[in-house]
Specification:
Elements: H1 4-15, H2 20-27, H3 31-40, H4 58-67, H5 72-81, H6 88-98, E1 118-130, E2 133-144, E3 150-155, H7 160-174, E4 180-183, E5 190-192, E6 199-200, H8 202-211, E7 214-217, H9 227-240, H10 249-264, H11 275-282, E8 298-303, E9 309-312, E10 315-318, E11 327-332, E12 336-341, E13 344-350, E14 360-361, H12 381-389, H13 394-403, H14 409-421, H15 424-437, H16 442-457
Parallel strand pairs: 1-4, 4-7, 10-14
Antiparallel strand pairs: 1-2, 2-3, 5-6, 8-11, 9-10, 11-12, 12-13
Length: about 475
């Protein structure tokens, strides 16, 4: 079929007085085609009137497509069962031409950004190799809209604290911030709403105000709006993460920084420059970093347990043993865990990222010296009082305490009672006798003392040698 250009040429040559043979020879087409064009008298290409095999089954197709959940294979099978003779290719072509079961494709949007206008942030799950084993991870990426400068870091998980850590590192890498940070409708930043109605979490709003930018979210389903950051995740997975082992998370993120430097310095055909070269023009438009940027930290309140540890994300970090049972503040940082008692920092540990849960990090300075875990108990006051009041009984007291259970406090208390209640000389004599024969029962000692003082304190009445008849034996 002749196209519209040839048909217009045939009509023009005919107006100039050329015959059909001359026109066919000049344009190298058949004379029949020339006659058809001259007969129609129009340069418009006529529509091809061709019967479609699926046209008689249009009503059945419209009914089967939603019933089969849009699966045209099942639609074709059901049509064949009813006696239809069309092929699967004819069915799909008919549905495609008439828009049955196919959403018409929309043209991709194009977004151009001025220097310093927008940066785009998003995360994506990936699998990384750490110390010879595969682990799940979250890749966080931030891309500048104008220069396409890329920064990425990888974490075992991603929450609000790590989001602030990542953004702080990314803005330090760029040396400034764009006026707007476009992101997906992520619960890490979004409090409520989507798209233009999105409201960030107050904590994240305060973080953005410190750096002079605002968070914004694209409308649901509008993936093209954040294409700057979205299209890089496939490149990250198939380039950076392809057979790139690392010893730990710190090593992996150090490699990610080196890789970002390399990618940003590579020229891109569609940019006609490298991102690093475009960034040189964008840098003066970025909002300068604050004069002082505090460390991103999250504060937890913990009570030091009986073993002298505090628990943070199922890992245990030691605290000074003098704080056992007391409440402390635990500051979670990117690479450290700090413990505060009031305004004073009393402990600092390197944060654990690798390994399983319930790991212990112990600082030897937080434990008492060996042999001094418990304070030496002072001597009972009864011992000191006995030493002052009756030093003559020191030998008996030492032997008594050696035989008594425990520290001998009860025995010393009983001996002190005897010192207070009985004369000293009979008591000392009775104690010497008891020590000689190994008698350490204080009741027997007391009977010895009573026997010794019976004639002195309680004199017995004098009786006649031979009682007379006048004496009453009962008196």
């Amino acid at each position: 079929m002749l196209d519209q250009v040839l048909r217009a040429a045939i009509l023009r040559l005919h107006e100039q007085g050329c015959g059909s043979r001359a026109i066919a020879k000049a344009l190298k087409v058949s004379r029949g085609s020339v006659r058809d064009v001259l007969g129609s008298g129009s340069e418009e290409v006529p529509a091809v009137e061709r019967e479609e095999k699926a046209a008689p089954h249009r009503d059945a197709i419209l009914e089967l497509v939603p019933a089969c959940k849009g699966n045209l294979v099942r639609v074709h099978e059901e049509l064949v069962k009813t006696g239809a003779t069309l092929s699967y290719q004819a069915l799909t072509a008919y549905c495609r031409r008439h828009g049955i079961g196919h959403e018409p494709k929309k043209p991709a949007g194009r977004y151009d950004f001025a220097p310093g206008q927008e940066m785009q942030h998003d995360t994506s799950p990936h699998e990384v190799e750490l110390a010879g084993r595969k682990v799940k991870a979250q890749t966080a990426s931030l891309v500048l809209g104008y220069s396409h400068m890329l920064f990425l870091q990888i974490y075992p998980t991603f929450n609000r604290f790590l989001c602030k850590v990542f953004l702080a590192d990314a803005l330090a890498y760029y040396g400034g911030a764009c006026g707007r940070c476009m992101l997906d409708n992520s619960h890490v930043v979004v409090l409520r709403g989507t798209g233009a109605r999105m409201e960030p979490v107050p904590e994240m709003t305060a973080f953005a105000e410190r750096y002079g930018f605002q968070f914004a979210a694209h409308e649901l389903g509008d993936a093209n709006r954040s294409a700057r950051v979205e299209r890089n995740f496939d490149y990250i997975e198939n380039n950076f993460l392809a057979r790139r082992p690392a010893a730990d998370w710190e090593d992996l993120n150090a490699q990610a920084r080196v890789w970002c430097d390399k990618v940003n310095a590579t020229a891109r055909r569609h940019l006609h420059a490298s991102p690093r070269e475009l960034f040189a023009a964008e840098l003066p438009s970025l909002k300068a970093l604050p004069a002082w940027v505090p460390d991103v930290r999250e504060i937890h309140h913990r009570i030091v347990d009986v073993e002298g540890y505090v628990n943070v994300h199922r890992h245990r970090y030691s605290a000074p043993y003098t704080l056992i049972g007391r409440q402390v503040e635990v500051h979670e940082l990117k690479d450290a865990i700090e413990i505060f008692e009031g305004p004073r920092r009393v402990a600092a540990h390197r944060r654990i990222w690798d390994g399983g849960p319930d790991q212990h990090v112990t600082d030897a300075a937080h434990r008492p010296p060996r042999g001094q875990g418990r304070k030496a108990q002072a001597e009972p006051t009864e011992i000191a009082e006995l030493a002052r009041a009756a030093p003559e009984l020191d030998a008996y007291l030492a032997a008594l305490r050696a035989k008594a259970p425990g520290r001998g406090t009860v025995a010393a208390r009983g001996l002190l009672r005897l010192v207070r209640e009985y004369p000293r000389a009979p008591l000392v004599a009775a104690a010497q006798t008891a020590l000689q024969y190994g008698l350490f029962d204080l009741d027997r000692l007391e009977r010895l003392v009573l026997r010794g003082i019976a004639g002195e304190i309680f004199p017995l009445p004098q009786r006649a040698a031979t009682p007379g008849p006048e004496d009453d034996p009962d008196e």
